[in-house]
Amino acid sequence: MKKALPPRTRFSGKLTLVICGLCLCLIVLEIALRVSGFVLVSLQEHRNRLALQKKGAFRILCLGESTTRNQYPAFLAEALNKRSRGLTFTVIDQGLAGATTASILSRLEQNLDIYRPDMVVAMMGVNDRGKHMPYAASIPSPAALSFLRSLKTYKLISLLRLRLITAFRHPDTPEGSLSQEGELKRCIARNPCDTSCYDKLGKAYAAEGKFLQAENVFAACIASNPRGAACYAGLGGVYREQKKFPQAEEVLKKGIALEPRDTACYRELGATHRRQRAFSQAEQAFAKAVELDPHDSVSYADLAGVCGEQGNLSRAQDVLAECIKLNPNDPPCYILLAGVYRRWERLPEAEALLKKAIALSRENDIPYGKLAVIYEEAGDRAMAEECYRQANALREKTYNPDTIRNYRRLKAALSARGIRLVCVQYPIRGLDPLKKIFSGDTQGLIFVDNEHIFKEAVKQDGYKSYFIDMFGGDFGHCTEKGNRLLAENIADTIMREAFGK
Predict the structure, then answer these.
(1) The pLDDT value given to residue 154
(2) What pLDDT, in 10s, does the model give residues 474-487?
(3) Of the chain's two ends, which shows fewer C-beta atoms within 10 Å, N or C?
(4) For position 261, what pLDDT does the model report?
(5) How far is residue 236's CA from residue 242's CA, in Å, rounded to a whole number?
(6) How far is Cα 476 from Cα 175, in angstroms, rounded to an integer?
(7) What is the 3-state secondary structure (H, E, C) of 1-53?
(8) Which residues have CB under 8 Å from 474's CB, separation 6+?
(9) How far is 336 from 136, CA to CA, in rounded Å?
(10) Contact, 467 vs 98, CB < 8 A?
(11) Residue 243: φ, ψ to 5°
(12) Comparing C-alpha atoms, which of 255, 254, 258, 315 is closest to residue 290?
């Protein structure tokens, strides 16, 4: 007779099978993650090829970042064709996750030549990094799926390209402008060893999408100041913006080797790893920046972000608490920690933190927007409306200069080709700041107002019915329901304003 195994042996065998099964699942998920980007790009390109094959169709090219790519454009053609009478619409999705207006504009002429659109729809600017760059929360929800989310399987399954990876920049970070190009060049000629003039000019070129000129400026900076960490950090940032990650890492490591106590290259190296979703390496770089400068709240915010993206929320919370302790007068960590408490439904604590951030930075619209969402969730409609109003009023005064400049460049380029531009405001945000970008020169432009339609929808069904996160402050990446609402509203506006229907 076959001898029965003792209970402990049977249990150990079953446990081994379970562990092996889990390991196999994780391997499959990681493989799926690696191919998901390729799949999504392929789907986007496939839809665009189909759009080009439709002869006689009215072509619409959609430009933007992660709120556009594989998001609302997938529903826009359907919404337009439902409303048209005899006219066929086709929609081309050229959203680019993580894109700034500069990187979008750098690809404009190529996209126009390839797709030859009759109309361009643009919703962009949230990733721009000018003087008034807001602090976007990038710490995920502390739900039971946090381990899976650290592997990014949630994003793979939902097929939503979520870019919760926003590099924080302090509001007072000096930025150059090409309106000062001549002055900055003269400054360099007078002071060839002063890195600040190179830095401003290089960033100004990068903001315009003129990456080759930016590279040349920072290369000249390095030649004149071979130990200037800001030069290496600036060049690394330009490479990162173009997704030239190996070059970025190489130049940043050189800068670190030359100036190992300077935080600039560590921060930029962390941002480069983060852009590649190499969160563990990004964490190491940001942790080093924090170690070197414990009073740099921006590095703390970056460090907390990558900890959260790995599912280590307790570590993220500790980092933010330490940031507030050492930097009680800087708002970034207050805003991020408020986001953590909101996700834990500790709304009073989140409210208090956001009010503190507002007291410290009254020109920053982001805490007002986040506070509006908290009041909305708490059922206090009057306070929510007041916070929305204040956030929109601030945006009218502090719209990002890079966004303004690149929207105007977009309009000029399209006007030269006789292509009509549709400017879409982000959900919940007011339309007036977007209109003011063009200083009254709005002839031929179509504006899509997504403020009231989304506010009413959120009031009716709740924020989470329409948004997956709140990276923009008072809005985030849309759910399918949110993207359908966005597409329907854009379609209604286009049919009414362009076709009189």
Answers:
(1) 40
(2) 898 999 999 999 99
(3) N
(4) 92
(5) 10
(6) 26
(7) CCCCCCHHHHHHHHHHHHHHHHHHHHHHHHHHHHHHHHHHHHHHHHHHHHHHH
(8) 368, 369, 370, 372, 373, 388, 391, 428, 429
(9) 8
(10) no
(11) 65, 30
(12) 315
Cα gap 298→323, rounded to integer Å: 9
SS3 call for 143: coil
CA dihedral for 74, 75, 81, 87, sign (positive or negative): negative
Q: Report in angstroms the alpha-carbon separations of 120 from 58, 84, 90, 173, 445.
A: 11, 18, 12, 32, 10
Indicate the residue type of 49. Answer: R
Contact call for residues 207 and 175 (beta carbons, < 8 A)? yes
The one-letter code for the residue type at 277 is R
Place of tokens 């304003």: 497
Whole-number pLDDT of residue 26:
64
Residue type, 281: Q
Do 295 and 325 form a contact (C-beta atoms < 8 A)?
A: no
The percent of the chain in helix, strand and coil, each rounded to the nearest 5, is 65, 5, 30
Considering all CA atoms of the chain, what is the largest pairwise distance in Å, rounded to the nearest integer? 97
CB 379 within 8 A of CB 178: no
Sign of the alpha-carbon torsion through 241, 366, 291, 274: negative
b (16+ CB within 10 A) / e for 21-46: eeeeeeeebeeeeeebeeebeeebee
Residue 460 neighbours by CB distance under 10 Å: 9
Q: What's the count of helices (H) and strands (E) in the chain, helices before strands?
A: 23, 5
Q: Does residue 354 contact residue 338 with C-beta atoms inside 8 Å?
A: yes
Token pair in block for residue 458: 């959120």
Domains of the chain as residue ranges with CATH? 97-118+403-443 (no CATH), 136-327 (1.25.40.10), 331-399 (1.25.40.10), 454-501 (no CATH)
* H-helix segments, 346-479: 347-360, 365-378, 381-398, 401-417, 432-436, 451-461
Q: How many angstroms separate the CA atoms of 233 and 176, rounded?
A: 16
Q: How far apart are CA 67 and CA 53, in angstroms?
A: 26
pLDDT of residue 344: 82
Rounded CA gap, 305 and 27, in Å? Answer: 25
Task: List the Cα angle 249/277/231 in 5-degree steps.
Answer: 30
Terminal C-alpha separation, the chain: 85
CB 445 within 8 A of CB 438: yes
What pLDDT sits at residue 215?
92
